[in-house]
Structures are given as C-alpha cells and as structure tokens.
Amino acid sequence: MHHIQAKILRQLLYTEALNYAAMRPQGVESNHFAYHLEQLLKEKLILKDDKQYYLSAAGLSLIDRLSQETMHARLQPHIVTAIDLTTPDGQTLLFTRNFQPFLHRAGWPLGKMHYSESTAAAAARELQEKTGLTGMPLVHRGMAYIDARQKGTTISRVLYHIFHGDVAKPLPTVTPAHRGSCTWADHTAYAPSQLMPGFLEIKALLATTKQLFFTEITEDLV
Fold first, then answer.
1. Distance CA 191, CA 104 (A)
2. Distance between CA atoms of 129 and 159, rounded to whole angstroms?
3. Which of 1, 12, 117, 149 could form an SS bridge with 121, CB 3.0 to 4.6 Å?
4. Measuring CA to CA, which residue among 73, 84, 65, 156 is closest to residue 126?
C-alpha cells in the first residue's frame, strides 16, 4: 500500500466519516491526495455519501489487520485446527510433515483455518485434505497457544483448536506426497524431538480432562 493511501486510511481510523478537506493528511500535496483518494475509492476501501467519506466493509476489514501505529500488516499468530483420532488400543493417527518449519516431525493432521470457516468446518476440511478421511464425528476438546522457539528465536506462534474422534480400528488414509505421510502409531514410541511442538503436553490434557481446556505452551526445539 502506498504511504499516502495509508495516511488517508489513518485519517478515518478514529472517526465515522470526514469531508474532503478534513480527510487530507497534513503535508500531502493536493494533487497527490486526490489521486490516492481516487485509488481507494476505486478499490472500494472508502465510500462517499454526499460530501462525507467513510470506510467500506472491505476498508474496515483491512484496517483491522493493520497496526494502528505503522498502518502496516501486523505479524500475527496462525489459527489452526488439529485432529486427534485414536483407536481403543492407543494408536493415534500421526501426520509427518514434508515441509518447513518442523520438517519430518510427526503430529496431528492440522492446518490453518480459512477466514470464512467455522472451527468445525475447518477441522473436517483439514482432515479430508491431509488424510482423505471424511464423515468423522469430531468433538472440540480444547485450545492451546504454542510458542515454538529455536535458540531463543520464536519460529512460530500458533493457536490450536483441538478436535478429537474415536475410531474402532486404524483406517486407510490417502495423503498428497508433497504434504507428508500418515501412519497409525503409539505416540509414546516417539522421542520428543520427533514430535510437533506442544504435542505431548496436549496429549496429556486430552487423557486427563474431559472439560474444554485452554493452555499456553512454550517449547524450545532441540
């Protein structure tokens, strides 16, 4: 976004509407202001009603993703759904990643939520995309905010929505090779360094509480 457009949007940040003169940022030449205002109107980020200008729904959505101080997009944590499928004999469906970060680490099938999705819809979609499984009854069991670090530097901050499902026996799965691979296994046979950040702590919560939980986990990667 051009810095003059950011300045114009900032003028509307703390008000419902402004007229043309009041909206012109200090220090911006008139012709430059007029040009960039027209661009924002064309993109429908700003709308005009009589002589008043105001943020459209798209403009409000954009403003919500920007830092109020810098008007730049903010670095924000991801929101994902993770699906814990288990059998009566203690096997869990594990997904081993073929991509960074956390290359070759095993954990649940998981993925980022889409903006338009409910958490339940996101969980069903991610399970289908990662494993080919559909129609699984899933229960939202809890949330976990995970800060994964390496040598003091945060690699990722992720808010997990954890869903659980019970299956009578291991089910066949189909996973695109570029994404990773799935296997049914006893997760306790894995070393912590082979598992996704927070996996063991969340597994323990799933086993010990029946209430909807929330936890914050900081894990230093080996």
1. 13
2. 20
3. 117
4. 84
CA–chain centroid gap for 64, Å, is 15
CB 136 within 8 A of CB 165: yes
pLDDT digits (tens, 9 = 90+) for 183-216: 999 999 999 999 999 999 999 999 999 999 999 9
Give pTM, 2 decimals: 0.78
Angle between helices 3-11 and 30-42 (to 10 degrees): 80
* pLDDT tens by residue, 49-82: 999 999 998 898 888 778 777 888 877 889 999 9
| Integer Rg of the chain from CA | 23
Q: What's the angle, vertex CA 213, arms to CA 212 and CA 216, rounded to 5?
A: 160
Position 83 scores a pLDDT of: 98
In DSSP terms, which residues pair with 158 in a beta bridge? 78, 146
| Domain locations along the chain | 3-64, 78-220
pLDDT of residue 173: 96
Cα separation of 105 and 99, whole Å?
Answer: 9
CATH class of 3-64: mainly alpha
Look up the CATH superfamily of 78-220. Answer: Nucleoside Triphosphate Pyrophosphohydrolase (3.90.79.10)
Cα–Cα distance measured from residue 63 to residue 65, given in angstroms and rounded to the nearest whole number: 5
